[in-house]
Structures are given as structure tokens and as C-alpha cells.
Design goal:
By secondary structure, the chain is an alpha/beta fold. The protein folds into 3 domains: 7-247, 3-Layer(aba) Sandwich (Rossmann fold), CATH 3.40.50.300; 252-380, Helicase, Ruva Protein, domain 3 (Orthogonal Bundle), CATH 1.10.8; 390-492, Orthogonal Bundle (Arc Repressor Mutant, subunit A), CATH 1.10.10. It contains 24 helices and 16 strands. The strands form 6 sheets. A 5-stranded parallel sheet has the order 4-7-10-1-11, covered by helices on one side. The protein has a 3-stranded antiparallel sheet with strand order 14-16-15. A hairpin with a 6-residue loop joins β8 and β9 (212-213). α15 (279-294) packs across α16 and α15 (279-294) packs across α19. The chain is elongated.
Amino acid sequence: MKKATTLGELKASGYRPRSVKDELRQNLIQKLKKKQTVFEGIFGFEDTVLPDIERAVLSRHNMVLLGLRGQAKTRIARMLIQLLDEWMPIVAGSELNDDPLKPISRYAIDLVAEKGDDTPVEWVHRNDRYVEKLATPDVSIADLVGDVDPIKAASLKLPYSDERVIHFGLIPRSHRSIFVINELPDLQARIQVALFNILQEGDMQIRGFKLRLPLEIQFMFTANPEDYTNRGSIITPLKDRIESQILTHYPRTIEVAQRITQQEAKLAPEQLKSVEVPELLQVLLEQISFTARESELVDEKSGVSARLSISGYENLVSTAERRMLINGEKTATARIADFWGVIPAITGKVELVYEGEQEGPYAVALELIGDSIKEVFLKFFPDPDKLRKGRESDPYGILKAWFSGGNAVNLLNDCSDQDFKKELDKVAGLRRLVEAQDIPKAMIYTFMELVLHGLSECNVINKSFVEATLTFNDSLADMLNSEDDDEDDDKF
């Protein structure tokens, strides 16, 4: 469709002004009627957060998304753009996105009065109708609302009392747009007060000017509950003026968390072609986040961001890729041992309580990985601690006997795929145990490795890591063998 270039053409096209909230509402109604997906790529919120947002849009409410870090609050806010009209007409040259039929700035009003139907019209794409500001302690009222511009006054030779010397802030410039303030509690209380009138009355005043701008803005705020006690707070009168408060949450199932990680992880094309991450390890990676959120060593008020799994997945792939490059191999399959490379993604994503700080972030990361391995292991194999002695056969009997004989498994961090499989194959009874669980052939070695790690977490065998080598053995057998060697030495 040809876009109007003048006010006269715009009137002839049948254009009618409507507020940004009406625009969002009508476009949402159309999407719901057509059963179209409104928030593409947002998983786990289908029955909780997203319906609340849709109800708020239909009610033409300003919103605050309240939730811990890494819960897609900003992503959801940015996706509201898709509910705007693709193009919006404005008075050409307007700073405030003036509607040609409802101008509010002095510039646009004067231009329309002067040129009438010949007033030039420009079109703004919906991507340019989104304004986002991170609330920080140094944000000023001038940043958000505006102030007198001495340079403009001097260049136009106008007194400071003339409203044309105003330099508009972010909020007026967001007229007919979506305006988002992230981490609202970090905004100083006196700055939050400046938002009262625009939220309640729909207009605002700049400095001492009589001018009051009837702005039309869809406000959305994000906040972290931690901020209410640690850094700042949303003042009560402001909370009262934000019509809908919507609570976000972390993924409630491993499957949903996996979908988010797979969507958000940024991998190089060559990594996608050459590195495979078995389904089991994807589950294990997500389990680490779930375990961390329940850990007594991690501050639950701070939360554990979904970015832990995303960064961890990228590190896991890169660890396998590095091993592949070192060994001159063409492809690589990630291993549980590769989770040593995930530790940097864990230590930077969890806030520890006092007890956790005492242990140290590295030790806590190892504990989280170990607990997660045990959790996943017990979903596939019997719990060694719950086997009734004498009443049923021990499925781990052959393995225990093999390790009790003084045998050990040594897995170098960067050992080749051939050496890795050879080391696992030498463990008596290990392959038979895995195959008894009807495991897909392609996953046999992944589950064989899981058994060793799982038994070590259940304290059936010992696991140690020395000089880039992961060793599984029976510590008691090693001790007895050492004593025997000492006795043999004494004979000479």
C-alpha cells in the first residue's frame, strides 16, 4: 500500500488516530482470534505469565514484570513490539512522534497550522517505537523527562521561558511507543516520583513550563524481588499506579529448560556440524541448574539464571571441540568428564550464602555437578544404598569385584575417542549392566561413563582427579595393595 506523504493524503486514506494501548489491544485481539502465537520462542510461560500479559494488554494496563534474574523479563518486553502496527505516520521532523491529526508538540502544532493539508508526513517502523532504559542510580529527571537546553535557546535566540528551548527526555520521545525501564527498584525514589503523573493522568510537566504533554505510552517495568531488600525498592505510590504486576518464574521441567537452552545457545556452524551432545548430557546440564536452585549453599533470593545452562552448554560443546582438535579427530561426542569445562559457567552464575563462600565457588560447582550426576544416574539404575543384601542379586557385583581386585579406570581429560572407549570396555560387567537397561546403541558409552560417575557419587567406588586425569578405583583395594607392596619391599 502506498504511504501518504502529506496530511491531506493521510486524511483521504481514512486514517484515524488511536492510542498505542488501543493499538496493542486491537492487534492482540486479531492474533488471538486467528490463534497465532503472540510471544514466539518463550517457553514454560504458556499457562502462567503469557496469559497474564495478554490480559493486561486487553485491559490497556501498564505492567511490571517481577521475577529473579534470567527469567526472560526483558525479552518478553521487547516482543511486545510485534503487537504494534508495522508503520505509524508522524509529522515530518517531529521529536515526539506527533500524530498528524493529534499533534502535541509546539513544533508540530505550528507546522500543521502553517501548512494545513500540505504538512509533510513521515512513517516510523514499529522497531523504532521501542525505548528501553536501564535504571541506575545516576539516572536523572532530565534524562527521563527533559530540561532546558541553553544551546538551543542561544541558537534560536529565545528566552528560557519559551517552551521551544526544551530538550525532551526519553519519556516524551516515547510518545505513541513502548517504554521499558529495567530494574525499576534501582531508580532513585525522587526519580520514581516523576513517573506519578504520566502513569495516573497521562501527561507530564517539564520544569516550570505551563505546557503539559498528553502523552500516550505503553509502560512496562521489570524488577527483581531481591532489589526490594538489598538495593532499593519500588515506592508504594508508584506500585499503586502500575495496574498489573506479573510474576515470572524459572522453567518448571527439565524438558522446558532444554528447549530454552537449545534455542538460546550460540554455537559456531562448525561446532554444530562436528560436536554431538547426547540427550543424557543435555538433561544432566539442566539438572545442575535445578539442583543449584534447591542447594543450601546457593542464595535462593538471588536465583540461578537460565544463562547458567546456556553458557554451560556452550562451554560443554567447546570442551569437546577442543579435545577433538587436539586429537586430530573430525567429530566429537561430549562426555560427562567434559563437565570440568562447564565449571567456569557455574561459578559466575550462582550467588553463595556464607556456608558456600566458606567452601569456595569451585568446590560448590563440583558438588552441584556431583549431586546432579547422582540424580540422573538414579533415574536409570538401581540405588546401591537400597539394595537388600541377601534378598536379591546385586547388579553392580561384577563391577565391585573388578575394582576390588585393584583395577582402575584412568580417563585423561583430552584422551581420544578410541582411548576413551577402550578404557571403559576393560571394566568387567559394565557394558552388560548398561545393555540390560535397553539403552540405544549410540548411547552405550555415554551410559557406561554415567555408571562410573554415579557409583562414585553413591560412594561405591572412588573418584579422583589428578593432573588432568580422572581415576575411578576402589580406595580400600588400593590401600591393601600398597601395604602388600611395602611388605614385598621389606623382604629385599
